[in-house]
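Internal QA ticket QA-208
Title: Verify multi-chain structure generation after dependency bump
Assignee: T.L.

Test input:
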Amino acid sequence: MKKVIAIDGYAATGKSTQAKNIAKHLNFLHIDSGAMYRGITYFALKNFWFKNQINIEVLKDNIEEIDINFSIINQTQIIIINKINVEKELRNIKIDQNVSLVASVPEIRSFLLKKQRQIANKNNIVMDGRDIGSVVFPDSKNKFFLIASPEIRARRRYDQIKTDNKSATLSQILKDVKTRDKGDMSRQISPLKPASDAKIIDTSYLSKELVFDKIISLIEL
Ligand code: DC
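Actual output:
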C-alpha cells in the first residue's frame, strides 16, 4: 500500500477542501469518499425510488449493476456511474437527506471499502470521509478528524448552496445537518467517530489557511 492521509469528520467541517489542498501540496491524489456514497445515492434516487423513499432491498439486490468509477482532473476525482459523469448531481438537498440511509447499509459500505483500498494500492492519497482512519485505513500514520459546531457547519453549507438553490433556508439546513450527524453517529457499522490515534482539529473559529497549516505541520511522511 502507498501512503494514505485520512481526513475524517462531521459534515461541512471543510474536510474535502482541506483534503484537496493537502493533496495538491503533496502531489498526492485526493479521493472524496463521501462523493462515492453520494454517487450511489444519486443512482438509487433515480432508479429505486418507490413510495417516497429509496427501496434499500432493491438497491442491495442490484449493487453489482452499479459501475462506480472515477477519472482524475487536477488531482481530484470526478465520479462516473455506468459511464456517466454525475459529479455535478451530487451536492443537493435531496442527496443530503438520503445519503445517511444509503451509507448505513453494510453491503454498500463493503462494496465501497473494497474500491477505496484498491485505489490506495496504486496511489499516494489523501482521502476524506467518516471512517477512513478508523476502518478503511486503520494503519495509516496520518489521521485527522475535523469538528465544528452544527450552527457553523450549517452556515457554511448554506453559503455554499444558496446561489444554486434559492429556496434553501438556514434553519432547514441546520436541521438536516443535525439529522445527518445523528444518522452517521448512530449507525451500527462504521459509525462516525475518531480513530483512537486521530488528531482532532476544531475548525469552528479557524480560517481554511490555518487549518491547512496545522494539518501540514502534523503530517509525518
Ligand atoms: O462528506 P459528505 O457530506 O459528502 O458525505 C456524505 C455522506 O456519506 C455522509 O452523510 C456520510 C456518508 N459517508 C460515510 O458514511 N462514510 C464515508 N467514508 C464518507 C461519507
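Spot checks passed. The radius of gyration is 17 Å.
Status: verified.
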